[in-house]
Amino acid sequence: DESLFAGLRRRRPDLVPYVLAKRTLVSLSHAIEDESCAHGDRGLILGAFQREHFFRSAEERWRELARTADTSLALADFEELREPSDGPIEVPIDRSGPVGREWALVCDGPEYSACLAAWERPGQEEVSDGDRLFETIWTVEPELVRDASRIGVGLVAHADPDLARKLTEELARRPLSSDDRVNRVTALTS
Hints:
This protein has helices spanning 4-11, 22-39, 52-68, 142-159, 161-173, 181-189, and strands at residues 18-21, 44-50, 71-76, 89-92, 102-108, 113-120, 133-139. It is α/β, with parallel strands linked by helices. Strands 1-7-6-5-2-3-4 form a seven-stranded mixed β-sheet, sandwiched between helices. Strand 5 (102-108) and strand 6 (113-120) form a beta hairpin. The relative contact order is 0.21.
């Protein structure tokens, strides 16, 4: 898959997409990230940021998220792959590909799993940044979150096949999160 959003929609066409403004996506993303931190999960966290400057504006927060994650990945139009010791692995993406217009967050841990994937609607050059519109889906289903992790790792393979192979092996060893959906949904929406 070249797209988190499209890959998840192919797997689960029944997920209802919602059109959300960027400011709403920021709030929803922060809620998912905060809930992951509250669980103290040491799983995988992956974010697709489209552009490096969007990641840089969230970098301090993502350094905190990376501190307690087993693996943290940021996908954006970086110049090159970087593995800083105090932050997420910075994975360059093809800006002209489908993931170049996506916003995604995957939290895949032993106690908590959630993901959201969104694609930016075209033709918004004149729209203010916070009002940009994204078609968005999200789920807390452990199996689908794991699918999102695998799709994300597949995107990493374009930049570093060895890293992707290592991450694929890690995912194969990691059990799915507990299937306590109602509690997770309640906690997330609260």
